[in-house]
Amino acid sequence: MEMKRKLFFTIMLVLILPLVVASPFYYEIEVKYNFNDEINPIEILSVNVVYSQSDLVIDEGEAKLVLEDGDGEVIDDVKFFVPDQIHSETINEVSGELEKGEVVYQDEGVFLLYAPYDERATSFIIYDIEGSEFLSKDIGEFAKVDLGEGDEEENVMEDIGGDKSDNFWAYFLFFVIILIVFVVIFLFLRRKS
Known about the structure:
Blueprint: H1 2-21, E1 25-34, E2 42-51, E3 63-69, E4 74-80, E5 85-91, E6 98-105, E7 108-116, E8 121-127, E9 133-138, H2 151-161, H3 164-192
Helix pairs in contact: 1-3
């Protein structure tokens, strides 16, 4: 009987742990760079919160984006490269073989940068390769704010992840499926003994 309980709690832990560990929301930051502009070579075009079931953060590179809370405490940081290189190859149209490969450098372009969403974050700072603060952006509009009762709370939920009722039904369905799995496991273990 003790073995059945251990198995039951182990399965429950394995099913619920992913919900606790990872947040499926990310900041999607659209960044424009123009290395010919000496005053403002990098600017933020837009910041959105997006949902993804897969990890969107690529934490490697020379520059760094730091998320901070309202007190200036660092919540998270993400390293990144500015993708200013394109690898190009020329193909011989007659033979179909590669003739020449080269790296083409772009002086300007637009790319997307992803950082993990955190409801405490109110701003982010971009640091250049030397570690100097380069650019900062207020993202307080995406922070979770306790507004109390009323319609304003509904509007915040729509801003950061959709309609509250959609989330309710998704979680309800998930927990019903987990409950069914537990009942089946319990009946199987009971029948086996």
